[in-house]
Task: inverse folding
């Protein structure tokens, strides 16, 4: 059977990572105070990147698919 090749990083993750990098650089250059709310935007963008990047590698389903199949087979029997 054909197995699709897993990419190391997807296009959307690359866009999130690069945009957060440029936002950090812009924020550091023009907003030198840490109190500024502008620090939230690059932080949230980077967190979205991390969530997507790590989430593709970790099985976040916690075997719910297997439990779902077992539940459906039990319903068919009963």
Result:
């Amino acid at each position: 059977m054909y197995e699709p090749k897993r990419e190391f990083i997807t296009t959307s993750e690359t866009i999130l990572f690069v945009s957060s990098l440029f936002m950090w650089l812009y924020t550091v250059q023009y907003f030198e105070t840490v109190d500024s709310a502008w620090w939230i935007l690059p932080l949230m963008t980077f967190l979205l990147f991390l969530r997507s990047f790590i989430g593709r590698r970790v099985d976040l389903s916690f075997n719910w698919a297997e439990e779902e199949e077992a539940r459906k087979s039990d319903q068919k029997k009963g």
About this structure: The helical segments are 11-30, 40-55, 64-77. The mean pLDDT is 80. Residues 11-30 form the longest helix (20 residues). The two ends are 34 Å apart (CA to CA).
